[in-house]
Amino acid sequence: MMSESKFSTRDNRLPSASRPTNRRKFLLLAVLIALALLASACAEARTELGESASRLMRLRAWFGDPSAHPEWLVNAGERCGDAAMIMPTSGYIGVGWGDSFRPGHNHSGYDIFTPERANNITPIVAARDGYLTRESTWRSAVIIRHPNFPRPGDVLWTYYTHMASADGETSFIAPEFPSGTHEVFVKAGTLLGYQGNWSGVANAPTGVHLHFSVVKSTGSGYANETIIENTFDPGPFLGIETGPDGFLVCAQTSSQENPEP
Ligand SMILES: [Zn+2]
After folding, report:
1. Parallel, antiparallel, or unpaired: how do β-strands 184-186 and 130-133 relate?
2. How far does the centroid of ligand 1 lie from the alpha carbon of residue 211, in Å?
3. What distance in Å separates the CA atoms of residue 182 and residue 13, rounded to the nearest whole number?
4. Digit-coded pLDDT (tens) for 125-153
């Protein structure tokens, strides 16, 4: 009985011996593939973090002495090549579309930082002809609707914010556009207001800048621009691209627009 059972056990093991080996090989292969995928995901995350980190370091350098970096500047009203929109303000594009400084969040527009290092000095202009709205609760922002753009039947919006003092008490939006303004026609280059550092939270300034975003339409209005999926990269609209050293620069020779017709 004993020997028979032993034998039969051994016997049972024999034909199946090759199966665990195959299974082991398969498992090993699966683990190797998973590790390879993980490694490439990590490399990608490192590259993204690296880009965002180097942008942060440059931003620190910019805050330290903007006059040391005139080549980083874009200028309000300039048109890069034959871009569809003109530059909405002057300064350094310190934070780009998609930049991430905390997990799960990607920046939905461009942050353009004034060289003046002070509130209420650097003008912000309409990037393209359209219809301006400032909701009754907005102290620092306006949004412009651009119908039939980029193609006939399409609607896109451009959003401009941070136009208020750090405590949120003083708005820097042009007096022509009081809160509650609805669908007022503005030409490209129209003065909308001045850069400020209202962050949405009182006395938590983020540095004087314009946050500019190109926002998708919901069909009946504008989408929530804080979600990156509701926005487009402003680069192609402004003729901005990432230069070899990671700076966001004019893709082609720019020309200064005369805002008046
Ligand atoms: Zn921003």
Report:
1. antiparallel
2. 4
3. 81
4. 999 999 999 999 999 999 999 999 999 99
| C-alpha 245 to ligand 1 mean position (Å) | 21
Q: Which residue has the higher pLDDT, 69 or 16?
A: 69
User: With contact defined as beta carbons under 8 Å apart, do 90 and 115 qualify?
Assistant: yes
Q: Are 101 and 237 in contact (CB under 8 A)?
A: no
How far is ligand 1, taken at its centre, from the CA of residue 152, in Å?
29
Q: List the beta strands (DSSP E) in the chain.
A: 73-74, 78-80, 91-95, 110-113, 123-125, 130-133, 142-147, 155-161, 184-186, 191-194, 209-216, 231-232, 240-242, 248-250, 254-256
User: At the fourth CATH level, which superfamily is domain 72-256?
Assistant: Glucose Permease (Domain IIA) (2.70.70.10)
* Dist. CA 238 → ligand 1 center (Å): 16
pLDDT at 2: 38
CA of 28 to the centre of ligand 1 (A): 46
Give residue for tokens 């926002």: 215
d(C-alpha 126, C-alpha 139), whole Å = 17
Q: Is 242 helix (H, G, I), strand (E, B) or coil?
A: strand
Residue 110 CA, ligand 1 centroid: distance in Å: 6
> Which residue carries 């490439």 as its tokens?
40
- 127 CA from centroid of ligand 1 (Å): 17
pLDDT at 3: 38
How far does residue 161's CA lie from ligand 1's centre (Å)?
8
